[in-house]
Amino acid sequence: MYTGPMDVTAYLTRIGAAADDPLEDLMRRHLEAVPFENLSVHLPEPIHLDVDELVVKIVDRHRGGFCYELNGAFGGLLGALGYDVALCSARVARNGGDDGFGPPGDHMALLVGREGRRLLVDVGFGRFAVGPLDVDRRDDQPDHAGTYAVHDAPDGDLDVLADGTIVYRLDPRPRILPDFAPPAWWHATSPESPFALSVTCSRLTPTGRVTISDDRLIETGDDGSRAERTLTVDEQLATYRDVFGVELDAVPTVAHPS
Fold first, then answer.
1. pLDDT tens for residues 76-119?
2. Residues in CB range of 7: below 8 A, 6 or more apart
3. Which of 242, 182, 253, 185 is nearest to 214 (CA)?
4. Quick check: pTM over 0.90?
């Protein structure tokens, strides 16, 4: 559990939350305030898996990040608030698991202890459960984003399902943040990484989700609506600033190999 000198007040202000808010509210506010984004991969700029540096990026620089950064920082906040937090490795399912799973450390999520239960908390997977999931239950768990379930998997792992499809396979054994440095480096640098293929910046909204994907602005609603349009460079910079609170000097673009 992180117990470093975090400015908890500044972090809570960043996400518009209070220290005594329930876990469910902290998750929702984090998902609405802090975008899932891979801009560092394409700017490019270094990614450091250190809680203090992650908090500087998210709180002081008003940025987001991908799973290792978002869950790493949020886990630090929860630890500073007194929660029992474990960092856990997950393997992302390919085609719902029919084509196997990614390598260990492909994703990082959090297990949070509350009243003798283990809760899966994940603010770093893009579109995913908005609230915590009880990993000790085996029945369906309704969530704002769909119906989730946790099933037993081989070797003590746990399969996490969304609307009946496996999303990832979770190893519930606690890890430390440096364990994820190699897969984070691979995702940030390999041309085979999905994060190298496109620029993404996305966050939850009170009525759906807003996303920049390369030069497209995509707005989806909880009612199933979808609006999409192409942005000019100036419109991209303005959208990053006005919609995501991210100030950029230049638009990040995918560097295609020659």
1. 999 999 999 999 999 999 999 999 999 999 999 999 999 999 99
2. 55, 59
3. 253
4. yes
Residue 82: CB atoms within 10 A of its CB come to 10
Residue 47 per-residue DSSP state: -
Contact status, residue 64 vs residue 195, Cβ threshold 8 Å:
no
Contact 231, 215 (CB under 8 A): yes
Residues 6+ apart with CB under 8 A from 143: 129, 130, 131, 133
In a 10 Å sphere around its CB, with 0-12 CB exposed, 13-18 middle and 19+ buried, how is residue 139 labelled? Answer: exposed
CB atoms within 10 A of CB 257: 5
Taken in order 61, 66, 68, 70, the sign of the CA dihedral is positive
Q: Which domains does the chain have, with CATH numbers?
A: 8-179 (3.30.2140.20)
